[in-house]
Amino acid sequence: MKFSAKMERCGLSPMRKFAPYALKAEEKGRKIYHLNIGQPDIETPPVYFEAVKNFSQPVLAYAPSAGVPVLLDAIRDYYGSIGASLTDDNILISTGGSEALQMVMSAILDEGDEIIIPEPFYPNYSTFITLTGASIRPITTRPEEGYRFAVRERVEACINEHTRAILFTNPGNPTGTVMTADELKLMAEIAKEHDLFLIGDEVYREFVYGGEPLMSLLQLEGYDENVVVIDSVSKRFSACGARIGCVITRNRELYNQVMKWCQGRLCTSTLDQIASAALYSVGPEYFDAVRKEYKARKDALTEGLKKIPGIVYSEPKGAFYVMAALPVDDAEKLQIWMLEEFEDQGETLMFTPAESFYRTPDTGKNEIRMAYVINRKDIARSMELLAKGIEAYNNRQT
Question: For residue range 262-292, what is the model confidence (pLDDT) as tens digits?
C-alpha cells in the first residue's frame, strides 16, 4: 500500500520515540528519571477540576467552532492585563498549541514555500510544516552566543521569494532564551517590510527568571497584519492533558482562513474549554510560586551540569528546558545505551537527543534537551546519572 510522501518525510517525536526502550528498562526493574518531555509535575490549579464537577448542562453539546464565549473572554482579559488589547473575534480556540500551529501553517504555506525558524527549534514544527509541502530555512544559533538570532543581517539573509513567515518560541523551547522588547520590535519591522507573517509561540510566557516582564508580540503597535500568536493552557497552568490552545491574530483574512479549519473539525472539547476558562481566574501569586519553583529547579540542574567535564550549555533565562552539548560522539546512541545497558543503583535517565531540533545537516548530533519539570532532589540525582553515564559510555567506546 502507498502512503503519503509528505508523511513519510516526517520523523517520530524525539521526546517520545525512546518510550519502547524505557518500557523494557522498567520491566527490568530500573527506575527512570524523566527529563525528556515537558510534562510538569506542578499541580493543576483546583479551579479546573471544580469547573468540571460543577458542569451541569443536560447535554454535552458541540461548542462554537471559534470557542466557547467564556474562554474567549478569559483569554481576551488575560492579554488585556498585560497591555494587549483584543476582541473575542481575534481568538480561535484549538486542540492545544499543536493544532494552533497546524492550523496557521495550513493557512499560510503552500508547496515550495519557506518559513524561517531559528534552530534549535521545537521538532514538531517540522512535522506541521512538512505536511504543507513547505520547508524550514533555519537560522543557526549557538550556546556561546546565548542562542540569540534577532540580527537584521542574519534574518534578512534568509529571506527570498519563497519566504512566507518567521516563527520562533519566546521564551525559547529548547533554548530557554528570552527575547528583549527591542529584538521583538526588530523582528516585527522585518516582517512588515517584507510582507511576512511573524508567528510567536508564547506558551511559556509566564516563566522568566530574571525579574523582567516578558513582552508579547501582541503588545507591539502597527503590526496587526503580520503578528500571529500561538498560546495554550498546557504549560502556563500545568494542564497539558486539557489540550486547549488558541490562535490569536488581528489579521481578519487570516482569521477567516483559519476558521475554515475550525469549522471542518467542528470544535474542541466543550468541557475542557469551560474548565480551562476557570484557570484564568488564578491570581499572580500562583505564577509567582510556580516561577520560583522552576527557577530553583533550573539552578539545581545547571549546578549539576557545571560539575560534568566537557559539557557546553547556555544558562536558560525562561521556559523550563536546557540544551547541552555533551562530550560524546552521538547523543542518541548514548540514550539508547543508558536505557538498555546502563544503571546505577538500579536507576537511569531519559533526556531528548537534539539532532532533530536542527534543520542544518550534521548539527546537534551530540546535543540533548532536558526539561526541569521534576523535583529538585530528582534533578540533582539525574545530573549524577548523566555524569556517570557519560563516563561509562566513553570508557566503553575506547
Answer: 999 999 999 999 999 999 999 999 999 999 9
Give me the CATH code for the 5-43+285-397 domain, please. Answer: 3.90.1150.10
Helix (H, G, I), strand (E, B) or coil at 99: helix
- Nearest Cα neighbor of 130 from 149, 100, 102 is 102
The answer to whether 47 touches 280, Cβ cutoff 8 Å, is no
How many whole angstroms separate alpha carbon 151 and alpha carbon 183?
8
In terms of phi and psi (left: phi > 0; alpha: psi -120 to 50; beta: otherwise), the region of 362 is left
Q: Count of H helices and E strands in the chain?
A: 13, 13
DSSP bridge pairs for 318: 208
The fold of 46-279 is Aspartate Aminotransferase; domain 2 (3.40.640)
Q: Give 3-state DSSP helix, strand, coil % of the chain, rounded to 5.
A: 40, 15, 45
In the chain, domain spans: 5-43+285-397, 46-279
Angle at the Cα of 227 from the Cα atoms of 203 and 206, rounded to 5 degrees: 25
Q: Give the separation between CA 17 and CA 168, rounded to whole angstroms.
A: 24
Evaluate if residue 57 carries a pLDDT over 60: yes
The residue type found at 359 is: R
Residue-wise pLDDT for 167-206, tens only, equals 999 999 999 999 999 999 999 999 999 999 999 999 999 9
How is 273-311 classified by DSSP, letter by letter?
A: HHHHHHHTT--HHHHHHHHHHHHHHHHHHHHHHHTSTT-
The grid cell for 368 is 540533548
Residue with cell 548523566: 386
C-alpha cell at 131: 505536511
pLDDT tens-place string over residues 120-160 = 999 999 999 999 999 999 999 998 899 999 999 999 999 99
Separation of alpha carbons 1 and 14, rounded Å: 26
Nearest-angstrom CA–CA distance, 349 and 381? 9
